[in-house]
Amino acid sequence: MAHQLTRFFAVLALSLGLVLTGMTAQAQVNPTASSVTEDSMFEALGTSDTVSGRVSIPNKTAGTLIKPDNKDWAAFQRGALPLIFVVALGGMLVLLAAFYLIKGRVRVEHGMSGRTIERFSAVERFAHWTLSSTFIILALSGLNLVIGRSVILPLVGEAAYGTLTAWGKLAHNFLAWPFMVALVLIVVFWVAHNIPNKLDLVWIKQGGGLFKKGMHPPAKKFNAGQKVIFWCVVGGGVALSFTGYMMLFPVQAGTPSDWQLYQTIHGLVAAGLTAIIIAHIYIGSVGMEGAFDAMASGQVDENWAREHHSLWVEEVKGRTDAPAAGRTHPAE
Questions:
Q1: pLDDT of 107 higher than 70
Q2: Where are the domains of the chain?
Q3: Which CATH number fits domain 68-330: 3.40.50.1980, 1.20.950.20, 3.50.50.60, 3.40.50.150?
Q4: What is the pLDDT of residues 200-226, one digit of tens each?
Q5: CA-to-CA distance for 222 and 192, rounded, in angstroms?
Q6: Can you tell me the distance from the alpha carbon of 184 to that of 179, in angstroms, rounded to the nearest whole number?
């Protein structure tokens, strides 16, 4: 009798052990169970399948722990996007350096006349400098988010990089608003002068007069090259503003896949527009003599204006209803 009881309890203990082992194994492969082991969790996360659990809140999409699309997006952010930025910005810098070494600074062929003409009013310059200064800070802070971890972090250390990135993020979020206001202002001020016309084809065929001495294609207030930059700034600025707004307020942006799409578009447009703005800064400063004066004082030398915007000079000087706008006077 005692032997039979001993056998009975042994079988019972073995059965209970098998049941408990099965329950434990089931819990380990269930990502929502409380007894999930660390190894099995990381094994599940390493697959290409969607890993989902259960949530008690109305938003059932919050139960998705990881998606394959998220991995593709993260890989793009870590790999392709930084490379695109490096190629776009580095390539533009190389092209401009080569152009400067070959062509040098574009000089005023007949020299400065000493007489100036108003090109931009104070309010136009204010809009331009607001747009340009905010864009530079936005571009630098955004560039830090793309390549800063691999380029800046090793140079300054974690503490300094963390502080820099935190302040850069705040600047990026808040300076986006004056950038958008200034973008609207330049559209109001200059859109009428940037409508393409047949003169632009002549300017393009002659390469803007940059490659042949003595060639100065006619142009009004803005030539074809400036019109290209204007529309790139407007189109790119609108795209950056819209996608940036969606990232600031993701509730209105839709699903996580939509957020990723907006972020990807934001990054690609930023890379292209930053490269274009680098070229614009070069031409408006060291690349062309007399160009910076237009946005510094608003006054440009008459010879410079005649060489680059001859039709605009004739329009200004020929106005009878606003003679003061076209009056020339000695430069200070």
A1: yes
A2: 2-66, 68-330
A3: 1.20.950.20
A4: 999 999 988 888 777 889 999 999 999
A5: 10
A6: 9
Residue-wise pLDDT tens digits, 310-330: 999 999 888 744 555 445 555
Transcribe 189-200 into DSSP letters.
HHGGGG---HHH
Among residues 220, 222, 221, 224, the alpha carbon closest in space to that of 206 is found at 224
Distance CA 260, CA 258 (A): 5
Return d(Cα 294, Cα 117) in angstroms, integer: 10
Query: What does the block give as tokens for 176?
Result: 């986006």
Write the single-letter amino acid at 293. Answer: D
pTM of the model: 0.78
Contact 266/84 with Cβ under 8 angstroms? no
Please identify which residue in the block is written with the tokens 């393009």: 204
Helix axis angle, 38-45 to 2-29, nearest 10°: 40
Helix runs in the chain, H state only? 2-29, 38-45, 68-75, 81-103, 122-151, 153-156, 158-190, 198-205, 224-248, 256-282, 293-296, 302-308, 310-317, 323-326
**Residue 199 tokens, joined:** 């003169």
